């Protein structure tokens, strides 16, 4: 249910859809440009540190909060 990508600080592209994930912390992945995390059970997604993000697919989740500031 969790995916730890905190050590992948230079990660730029991630597809992790349809895995029943409930939590992913992207605060240490500031180089992330493309993220597809659709079809999971994520309720909160904080992408405020991901200023390079240009493409996001987060549909089919249980989102209550999405921070893109």
Percentage beta strand: 25-35%
Distance between the termini: 26 Å
Question: What oligomeric arrangement do these chains adopt?
Answer: single chain
The mean pLDDT is: 96
The rounded Rg comes to 11 Å
Outline the biggest β-sheet: 3 strands, parallel
Order of helices and strands: EEEEEEE
Helix content: under 10%
Strand order of the largest sheet: 2-4-6
| Unreliable segments of 5+ consecutive residues | none
Overall description:
This protein has 69 residues and is an all-beta fold. The chain has strands at 2-3, 13-15, 23-24, 34-36, 44-46, 55-57, 65-67. It has a three-stranded parallel sheet with strand order 2-4-6, with no helix packed on it. A two-stranded parallel ribbon has the order 1-3. It starts with a strand and ends with a strand.
Strands, helices and their partners?
Blueprint (H helix, E strand, L loop, with lengths): L1 E2 L9 E3 L7 E2 L9 E3 L7 E3 L8 E3 L7 E3 L2
Parallel strand pairs: 1-3, 2-4, 4-6, 5-7
Summarize this, please?
This protein has 69 residues and is mostly beta strands. The chain is 0% helix and 28% strand. Strands 2-4-6 form a 3-stranded parallel sheet, with no helix packed on it. It has a two-stranded parallel sheet with strand order 1-3. It has a two-stranded parallel sheet with strand order 5-7.
